[in-house]
Each structure stands twice: as structure tokens, then as C-alpha cells.
Amino acid sequence: MAKQQATKKKTENKETAPKKKHYQNPTETWWGKLIVWIIVFGMVGLVILSFVLALIHGNA
């Protein structure tokens, strides 16, 4: 009798336990997309800025 009650409690705890969240790709969220686009535009902007500055200073 006691064993049956103990096993029932264990199975109930497993069923009611919250599910763990798995890894989610950052590009699937709005903030992840925002960060990726900021990085991309920042890199492209720095390349263009450095080229313009090189032209101005006569190093190109």
C-alpha cells in the first residue's frame, strides 16, 4: 500500500514538472535580429567610413 502511494507521487511530480526551455536561435527573436542587423550595418559603415577618410587624407 505504501509503495503504491509513493510511486503515484513520483509520477505526478514528473507530469507536473515545468518543461525546460531548449536553445532558441537568436535570429528567431526580434531582439536577436536587431542585434545582428546593427552588427552588419556597423561593419559596413566602418568600411565605408575608413575608405572615405583614406581618400580625404590621401592614403588611398
UniProtKB/TrEMBL annotation:
Keywords: Membrane, Transmembrane, Transmembrane helix. Residues 1-23 are annotated as: Disordered. The chain crosses the membrane at residues 34-56. Residues 9-18 have a biased composition (Basic and acidic residues). This is DUF4044 domain-containing protein. It comes from Peloplasma aerotolerans.
